UniProtKB/TrEMBL annotation:
<feature type="domain" description="Prospero">
    <location>
        <begin position="484"/>
        <end position="638"/>
    </location>
</feature>
<dbReference type="Pfam" id="PF05044">
    <property type="entry name" value="HPD"/>
</dbReference>
<dbReference type="GO" id="GO:0070309">
    <property type="term" value="P:lens fiber cell morphogenesis"/>
</dbReference>
<dbReference type="InterPro" id="IPR009057">
    <property type="entry name" value="Homeodomain-like_sf"/>
</dbReference>
<dbReference type="GO" id="GO:0048646">
    <property type="term" value="P:anatomical structure formation involved in morphogenesis"/>
</dbReference>
<dbReference type="GO" id="GO:0060042">
    <property type="term" value="P:retina morphogenesis in camera-type eye"/>
</dbReference>
<protein>
    <submittedName>
        <fullName>Prospero homeobox 2</fullName>
    </submittedName>
</protein>
<dbReference type="GO" id="GO:0000978">
    <property type="term" value="F:RNA polymerase II cis-regulatory region sequence-specific DNA binding"/>
</dbReference>
<dbReference type="InterPro" id="IPR023082">
    <property type="entry name" value="Homeo_prospero_dom"/>
</dbReference>
<keyword id="KW-0539">Nucleus</keyword>
<dbReference type="GO" id="GO:0005737">
    <property type="term" value="C:cytoplasm"/>
</dbReference>
<feature type="region of interest" description="Disordered">
    <location>
        <begin position="1"/>
        <end position="23"/>
    </location>
</feature>
<feature type="compositionally biased region" description="Polar residues">
    <location>
        <begin position="80"/>
        <end position="89"/>
    </location>
</feature>
<dbReference type="GO" id="GO:0001945">
    <property type="term" value="P:lymph vessel development"/>
</dbReference>
<dbReference type="GO" id="GO:0007417">
    <property type="term" value="P:central nervous system development"/>
</dbReference>
<dbReference type="InterPro" id="IPR037131">
    <property type="entry name" value="Homeo_prospero_dom_sf"/>
</dbReference>
<dbReference type="InterPro" id="IPR039350">
    <property type="entry name" value="Prospero_homeodomain"/>
</dbReference>
Amino acid sequence: MNLSLPDQNMHSSSEGCLEDDKPDIMLPCFRRNMYDEPLASYSNGSIISQLLRKTIHNKRALDESHFFLPSSAAPDSGQEDQSSVSSKDSTMEVASPGAHVSTGGSPEGEHPISDHLQAKRARVENIIRVMAGSPNSRQHGDSERLDTDARDTRETRETYRENKRKQRLPQHQEHSIGGPANRRPGSTNSDNTKDEECHKLKEQLHSMQRLLRQLQEKFLQVYNQEDPEHNDTQEPELTKDRMKVGYLVHQRESQNLQETLKQELSQAVNDCVDRVFKKVSSSGLDLSPQQRMCSSPDLQINMGADRKSQQVGSTQEQPLAEEAAGKPHSLEYYESSEAQSPQDQTEALSLVVRKPAITPLSSVNQTVKRPYPVHQTPFQFNYPTPLHDSQILEHLLKYGPHSSFGGLPCMPPSMDRTSPDSVDLPWEAISMRAKVTSSHLGHHPRPSALGAVAVDNLCLPHVKMECGELQSMLFCLDANLNIQEGLTPSHLKKAKLMFFYTRYPSSNVLKTFFPDVKFNRCITSQLIKWFSNFREFYYIQMEKFARQAIVDGISDVKDMTVSRDSELFRALNMHYNKANDFHVPDRFLEVAEITLHEFYNAISAAKDSDPSWKKAIYKVICKLDSDVPDEFKTSSYL
DNA sequence: GGCGGGCCTG
DNA sequence: CAGGCCCGCC
């Protein structure tokens, strides 16, 4: 099965060679201007809600640009600020600093700020941003291009994703609910009463609630541990940034922040669960036959599942599962409300997974994307009866949200993705193992399904949506908790796949697309070295095949093409995509062909007598880099 | 001098 | 793929 990323009709972004043309591509957590909010704004506000609001309703940043610190007008941030004005699409990260509605805090920019707290906040920002999967968090900051080119590719991409989604569906269903047989109407749930359903739901939601609390504690624990790192000098990039702003540690404010965060998180979770209960109660679990069909007595919290036939191209009109969910207004409320008031913040969690339907692109991407690809389905609660809290908690805290529940006895053996090596490992150690395991299982990137919540094929969409929110929170916590110290085989695989898009990634691109990597000089060098090696192999192949073509008497470059059947492509694919589980973008074939032609022409012209004859070719090829799909930004793509 | 890229080698 | 080396650039 060839699951594929969208064949972007890439722009010639010329990364690497023309890095100077691009603004800094920093994750929000590295962005200075993301920190430029005084803690005061949190003191009596809803932090998470504000963060979410910032992310989701960034558009409104226009009205609150005064929140930016004047001193934060670094070249890049300045540009972004402007882009937030000029491009309604490119505001996801741009507008964050000022997009929240202060709930009584004084205007920003006037007070000294505790930078370490800002950094913390920035991490949260980052989480939110990753979750939001901003389609416009492009590295280029070229609002014009974002408004034109990117938009031009939207339809293609969306259509593509839709197509791919359809292709994947059967397989997905297999994964998520154990095969088509289980979805026969009435095959499993015909005997269940509403009460039972409701009871199970409640049990599981309570489990989720408890789980969230645990994660929250975990999160805050890690959060607290971050402080010492602020003086860490082994992270040049970060340290430099931190030093730039100066680290004035205000313990008291830190405590306040933590408490507020904690409170906020609890409240958000509670609200979320409450809403679910409310909906469950109000709906009476009156399932339609169709719903029953896809329903099993268990609560399928298949959070990473594909969204089935959600009008991908028009999600702004039909935000996510709203219809199916029978949600009166909440989604729409968050997605379209331009005049949302601060009081709405208790519902902020919803915003994480459903972003505003400002434009078709943002709408689509925002609603579809999640930090983790579906094939990871960190939560595959697919069990005949509700798991006990202890089971859920144990599993999640043990293996992390990346793992499925395949290791549980109630899961079919075929679903078991984590065993047999799912031995006792600390939380922090799990994600890496899980990722490695995942990557070795031949799972594919599924960009269009990035953590998207299954809708149509789920019996209780509204419930699932809520669970999706919870899962999103877990993802986001997980992303924060699983910063890698080093690079893993999974990262290598991801890098290779990225090579299909970019041959010359800048260090900023690398940082952007390896958000779970704790970057330092060594890591950066290693990543760069990887791509250097990739290029080396790539060019060697090109030269080899070009020379072979000449030997074979090919007289016209036009006679040399690179298709998926080409021997050259197979060689490359074998190298970068050994498992062949990634659909190589067409653009890569084009670039390969161009490269081959370049070599052919150069050799034909006897330019290879010049020791540096390849440099001219490199110069051409480096301009053919594409944007790496945002899906690669997830911390655990593979 | 630091850094990134390329080349060569194992 | 990593390490060592060289080179050019800032």
